[in-house]
Structure formats: C-alpha cells, structure tokens
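B., you asked whether I could sanity-check this one before it goes into the benchmark set. Here's the sequence:
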Amino acid sequence: MSRIQQQLITKDVFQFLENLKKNNSREWFAEHKTEFKELETEVKSFYSALMNKLKAHDDIEKLKMFRIYRDVRFSKDKTPYKTHFAGSFSRAGQRLRGGYYLRLKPKETFIAAGFWEPNKEDLFRIRKEFETDASEIRAIMDKKSFKEVWGDMQGDELKTAPSGFDKDHPNIDLIKRKQFIFIKNFSDKEVMSPNFLTNVDLAFQEIRPYFNLMSDILTTNLNGESLLD
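And here's what the prediction gave me:
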C-alpha cells in the first residue's frame, strides 16, 4: 500500500520543508520542483482524507489549500517560499459558523478552530451575548474532555473593555476578545504517526459543541429570534 493510500505525513515531507528553509531561493526550488510536486500530492491527499472524515460529522463546503509561494510585495522578509503546508476547511451554509485549519511544519505543526476575524457586526453580537450570559460558553470550555484537547481560548484581545462595555463586567475576559480561537500543537512524532489523521479528526469533533453554540449566537438576536430568512 502506498503512503498516499495510507494517508500518512511522512518524514520526506518534513525533510523537504527543512531543506527549503535552509535554501529558500527560486534557484533551489526550481531544481527540486519535481520532488515538491510529488510531496504536495501526498499532502493534498492527506487533507482530502481529513475533509472526508470531517464530512462524516459536519457539513463541509470546501477545502482550501494555501499556495507555498509567499506574497513578498509588502513584507520585509523577501524569501519567496513558505516553509510549511497549510489548509482550511469551511463549514457550509449561513447557519454553520466557524472553520477548521491545519498547518504542517517541522516542530511547529498545529490545528486550529474558531473565529479568526469576525466582522464588526458578528463581533458586537458575540460580545453582547457574553455580556448577557456566558454560562453556556464557559460550560463548554470547562468540560474536561474539551480542556484536555484544546486548552484555553486564544487569540488577540483588547487591553481594556471595548466601547460601550463595562470594564468591571464579570465576563470582561471574553468581551474584550477580538478573536475566539483554539489551538492544539503536535510533535513531529505525532504527525508521522499512523494515528495522526484520526487524532486530528477526533480533536475537531470535540470542538463541535463550541461551533454549535457560536452558530446559534450568530444567527439569532438577543431574544433568540432567528436572523436568517
């Protein structure tokens, strides 16, 4: 059985990324383009397999694989290539909010889930919900199995209360957030394990209660009335 059929991330993938980090030039990449294409096919197969697993318990609209080429126009770092593979999975429909993400990088692989850049309206709605009642979100985050997989909520936050909110509010730790994401790191050994695909999928299953609650919040008003047509 080939490694693509087995849905593994092999040592070859990480070795190529390590070599690319040391030789991040167009000349070196051109010389190793065939190797890159073969490994890219292997990685894409893994992401496709993960999408199929996600579809068994969620409604996934699309998989987006990010290109390895860097946009250096506005960056001080002019190296032309990323030294990781990454992809995101979008949930389908207006009612299903949140997204899944996987980055593969030597010694820095992680999965993430949640809300990276809520628009102004969504951010205000989330904050108003937490101002009114944060018991449901805290119950989800404090659940032992959830905590063991995802730890604490991460992401950018304001230094103080947003305009119109009380800085002494008991839920100010949630209200002042600008991002609502969870991250789980994996060692290289864990990534190359035959169980990696299953373990990532199980972690994403554990995030579902959080997505369900946030989807309800973002598709209703504070009276619980639907905002969808």
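One thing to flag: The first helix runs from residue 3 to 6. Otherwise nothing jumped out at me.
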